[in-house]
Amino acid sequence: TDNQRVILQITDVNDEPPYFINRPLPMQAVVKLNAAPNTPVFTLQARDPDKDHDIHYFLVRDRTGGRFEVDEKSGVVRTRGSEMFQLDMEYVLYVKAEDQNGRIDDKHFQSTPEERLSIVGGKRPPQFYLPKYEKTIPENAAKDSE
């Protein structure tokens, strides 16, 4: 019998959709009442398990009257316009992330489900999403040290 050497080269198929890593969901942010145009208020972050991905971020639905925009490449959500934001007013955006290299068909890319981003004018109570947080601080730690 003859032996034949076969070399298989396996490549990753871009078949996994991206997912948001921002927590908690729905996403929450705060905007200063007097925020200037182009002020960053939040950064959308998504991951894609595939090696060959190109994630872009999109504003799907805007319930804010055009007060915010999303940078397609960086995911940074910024203010638009110069009108002051209202105290305790909730501004709601619906966003998604798409993998521009992960096509489902000729018209559609793999994407995250549509997610809600709630932005409140003024202040918002602290947000915790883990059930427990621990930090040890030495007794002799300097003030304002990490």
From TrEMBL:
One of its GO terms (cellular component) is cell-cell junction. It is found in: Membrane. InterPro entries: Cadherin-domain_protein, Cadherin-like_dom, Cadherin-like_sf. GO terms for molecular function: calcium ion binding. This is Cadherin domain-containing protein. The lineage of its organism: Eukaryota, Metazoa, Ecdysozoa, Arthropoda, Crustacea. PANTHER family: DESMOGLEIN FAMILY MEMBER, NEURAL-CADHERIN. Residues 23-128 form the Cadherin domain. Keywords: Calcium, Cell adhesion, Membrane, Repeat, Transmembrane, Transmembrane helix. One of its GO terms (biological process) is homophilic cell adhesion via plasma membrane adhesion molecules. Its main location: membrane. It comes from the Eukaryota. SUPFAM superfamilies: Cadherin-like.
